[in-house]
Design the sequence.
């Protein structure tokens, strides 16, 4: 229980607290009321808009890349432009979209309300981290304007310290700044979760989404500084010629890879843990069933967060790293697969004997289990030494990490977006179109990335502008898939925009979820709750019944509708 | 996409899932040909994992589909309260995967050990990665652009880089090893069948990363020595101009054209005798010493309008080879 919470008392009524006409969107007006807001919800919305812009940018680059790859020779751009496209596609998607996506946009909005709190522990720090994000994003854009960066998002030395494109300064410095944004958000979430939990919510009564965010925050704080210092060393080496990584200056290029992956492998889990948290919420709510194996899921998040620090060497099996190191990293890598397997089986067990509502968010959750399942399983090929050597740096890797990061995190992000959209905007979206686009994206995704497994294992290296004729079929197939996916995304953009202006007004609790954010109106009032709500079991839905008059769920004990 | 091509793919798919059927060129649905002795072992591990993956993937998707069909929301169906946890189940799906991954680790590691250590007395070939060419140096000192090796003989590759990190990747041999500047790395292979197999660079290294290709040519018994003898004395069998043309074709053509079109570097057409404007604004006439310096110390004089990306060929071209190239460039006159 918390000693920071300002409001007194333990008033406990489970319905529609803080229901007023005034909501956070209408609370104050004018552009400045947004730009200098300390409201976590408005900061969350600003993050959401920014990361969606980044996603659009990264997605457009992906389409250009796929179009270039329609033919084995030159297609639409030259080799240098192609190299810059995949570099920026990777950097933008990872640093500007996937890492901040679920935590900073969705988490910012939802986390304090899930805790029944008025805000995060440090609202000013929260705004700071948003502006650091903006600065980082601007630097990334500057790097494009000054001629681009062609190093790959991994910035391997000595290529990155010798390439003639000096946009690399801007982009690495941008990533450095973004690191601080990420650290601040992590810090804020950890303190908020420790200190602002409401009465009745001990650690093991927290919604699993919060466990996911907590695990992620721990990694963000512990790993991101390593990336920061690595990129700074890179900049120093390039600018001042101080030999750290470049052997011609007395440095060690493999050292860079160690530093880089010491951050970037855990970063994979920064991306996936909140996604898994989202899926735990969705599967339970839309199956109308208590989550199965709560404790195992919660502990597995923490296990993943800690184990993820011990496996970075699996990115360097072919770097000349010693056989002993390879053996140890291979063994440790497999250990991370167990907590992920536990989660998948627990989600399935949750669905057992439920009443499964196939609404859009649930379709994304099912999509996630399918795609992340495939992504996770194909990781086994890459943990095993003999096969990893052959598959490393081929399209097999490209397929694998897209299945995990896109099929996992991005799909979960879409699930989260559709799930919390009514809460954020106060509007419902067009459900049939929602389901249709979820389906289109699922089909397009598999068409795009499955062929990449096959061409990878057949020997097609990654980051190739030209390729051998034998791979044409797979590349064309993959590109067609990417266009199909693009249709799905434009459809989403269309009906979400439409819903903001024309959508049906959302009830307080459209899906019948039991976590606290559904107890305040949609959209929530400025201060979230008038009184701190009493938290119960976040996965006990027995008190909720559907009221067709308002198109949402209400409490049986007190059926007065909200919102 | 023709019908026969579709049928080829169908055949590939069927073969791909049955490990026993693979082995012959042109490979299977999943894998390139097995041209080295280690390839079947690597593939065995691959198919082991593949089947484990298929088993679990089918299990997960089948359960999911079954639950969705059976328990979907509909008239007259309601959720049932079931246990919120079960230690027995949790332990089952912790321990079974744990055993399986330890097994996978073991088989992966066992084969890896054999990939790591070459048999004693292996034939040693040095491999040099340089933007954007592979060079292979044979025991007699001959440097070639392709990897030639005798069939059924262990060959130790000792790999280094002249500039940035590259990675020697020969899919048909299932080997990959980075060429790291400032150190040597090793890989070894024993080829099982004659043939020509692609060699790639797998570590991103700039503009022409995807053109940094070579062939691995596996010779029948006895023919490797014949080839090496001939290749080492190539210059003695050709006129200097022919030899120069051969060398420019092999080593310079990805950056320099001979037909007047500017590429990464200036075209060689009409280069001889041209007054070249340099990046610092001075000029220099292209004659023997200029060309020789361009080849050995390319960053000393940079032609205006071009980047300083030409690698040095110091130690990779002999003096008479440089002379041959000069003789050839003299013949490329604009008319
Ligand atoms: Cu990793
Ligand atoms: Cu390369």
Sequence:
């Amino acid at each position: 229980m918390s000693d920071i919470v300002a409001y007194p008392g333990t008033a406990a009524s489970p319905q529609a607290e803080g229901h007023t006409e005034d909501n956070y969107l209408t609370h104050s007006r004018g552009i400045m009321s947004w730009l200098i807001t300390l409201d976590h919800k408005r900061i969350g919305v600003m993050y959401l808009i920014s990361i969606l812009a980044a996603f659009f940018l990264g997605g457009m680059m992906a389409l250009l890349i796929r179009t270039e790859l329609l033919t084995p020779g030159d297609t639409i751009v030259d080799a240098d432009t192609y190299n810059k496209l995949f570099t920026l596609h990777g950097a933008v998607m990872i640093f500007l979209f996937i890492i901040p996506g679920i935590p900073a946009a969705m988490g910012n909005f939802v986390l304090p309300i899930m805790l029944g709190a008025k805000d995060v522990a440090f609202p000013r720090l929260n705004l700071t981290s948003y502006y650091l994000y903006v600065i980082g994003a601007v630097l990334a854009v500057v790097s494009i304007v000054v001629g681009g960066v062609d190093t790959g998002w991994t910035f391997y030395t000595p290529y990155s310290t010798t390439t003639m494109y000096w946009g690399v300064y801007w982009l690495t410095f941008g990533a450095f700044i973004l690191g601080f944004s990420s650290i601040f958000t992590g810090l804020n979430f950890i303190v908020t979760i420790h200190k602002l939990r409401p009465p009745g919510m001990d650690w093991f009564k927290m919604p699993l989404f919060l466990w996911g965010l907590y695990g992620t925050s721990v990694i963000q704080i512990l790993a991101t500084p390593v990336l920061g210092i690595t990129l700074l060393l890179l900049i120093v080496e390039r600018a001042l010629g101080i030999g750290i990584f470049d052997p011609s200056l007395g440095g060690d290029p493999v050292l860079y890879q160690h530093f880089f992956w010491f951050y970037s492998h855990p970063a994979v889990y920064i991306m996936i843990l909140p996604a898994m948290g989202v899926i735990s919420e969705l599967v339970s709510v839309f199956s109308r069933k208590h989550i199965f194996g709560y404790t195992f899921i919660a502990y597995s998040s923490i296990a993943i967060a800690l184990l993820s620090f011990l496996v970075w060497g699996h990115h360097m099996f072919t770097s000349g790293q010693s056989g002993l190191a390879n053996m140890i990293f291979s063994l440790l890598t497999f250990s991370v697969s167990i907590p992920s397997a536990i989660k998948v089986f627990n989600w399935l067990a949750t669905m057992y004997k439920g009443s499964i509502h196939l609404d859009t968010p649930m379709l994304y959750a099912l999509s996630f289990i399918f795609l992340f399942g495939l992504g996770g399983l194909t990781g086994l090929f890459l943990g095993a030494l003999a096969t990893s050597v052959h598959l490393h740096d081929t399209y097999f890797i490209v397929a694998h990490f897209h299945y995990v990061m896109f099929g996992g995190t991005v799909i979960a992000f879409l699930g989260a977006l559709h799930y919390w959209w009514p809460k954020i905007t106060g509007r419902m979206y067009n459900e049939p179109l929602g389901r249709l686009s979820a389906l289109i994206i699922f089909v397009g995704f598999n068409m795009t990335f499955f062929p990449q497994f096959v061409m990878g294992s057949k020997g097609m290296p990654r980051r190739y502008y030209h390729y051998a004729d034998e791979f044409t079929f797979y590349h064309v197939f993959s590109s067609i898939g990417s266009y199909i996916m693009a249709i799905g995304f434009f459809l989403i953009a269309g009906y979400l925009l439409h819903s903001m202006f024309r959508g049906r007004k959302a009830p307080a609790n459209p899906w019948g979820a039991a976590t606290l954010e559904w107890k305040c109106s949609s959209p929530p009032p400025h201060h979230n709750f008038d009184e701190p709500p009493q938290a119960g079991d976040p996965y006990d839905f027995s008190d909720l019944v559907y009221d067709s008059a308002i198109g949402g769920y209400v409490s049986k004990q007190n059926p007065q509708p909200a919102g | 996409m023709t019908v026969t091509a579709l049928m080829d793919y169908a055949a590939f798919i069927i073969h791909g899932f049955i490990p026993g059927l693979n082995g012959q060129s042109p490979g299977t649905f999943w894998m390139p040909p097995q041209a080295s002795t280690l390839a079947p072992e690597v593939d065995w591990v691959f198919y082991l994992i593949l089947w484990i993956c298929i088993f679990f993937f089918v299990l997960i998707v089948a359960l999911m589909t079954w639950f969705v069909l059976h328990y979907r929301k509909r008239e007259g169906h309601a959720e049932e309260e079931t246990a919120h946890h079960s230690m027995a189940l949790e332990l089952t799906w912790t321990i079974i995967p744990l055993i399986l991954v330890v097994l996978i680790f073991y088989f992966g590691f066992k084969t890896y050990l054999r990939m790591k250590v070459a048999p004693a007395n292996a034939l040693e070939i040095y491999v040099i990665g340089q933007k954007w060419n592979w060079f292979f140096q044979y025991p007699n000192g001959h440097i070639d652009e392709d990897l030639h090796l005798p069939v059924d003989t262990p060959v130790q590759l000792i790999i280094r880089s002249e500039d940035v990190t590259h990675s020697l990747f020969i899919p048909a041999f299932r080997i990959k090893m980075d060429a790291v500047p400032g150190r040597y790395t090793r890989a070894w292979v024993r080829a099982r069948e004659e043939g020509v197999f692609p060699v790639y660079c797998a570590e991103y290294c700039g503009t022409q990363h995807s053109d940094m290709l070579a062939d691995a040519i596996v010779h029948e018994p006895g023919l490797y020595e014949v080839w090496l003898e001939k290749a080492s004395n190539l210059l003695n069998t050709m006129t200097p101009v022919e030899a120069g043309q051969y060398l420019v074709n092999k080593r310079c053509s990805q950056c320099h054209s001979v037909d007047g079109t500017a590429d990464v570097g200036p075209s060689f057409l009409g280069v001889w005798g041209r007054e070249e404007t340099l990046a610092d604004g001075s000029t220099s006439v292209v004659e023997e010493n200029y060309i020789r310096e361009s080849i050995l110390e390319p960053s000393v004089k940079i032609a205006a309008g071009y980047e300083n990306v030409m690698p040095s060929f110091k130690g990779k071209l002999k003096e008479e080879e440089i002379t041959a190239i000069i003789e050839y460039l003299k013949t490329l006159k604009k008319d």
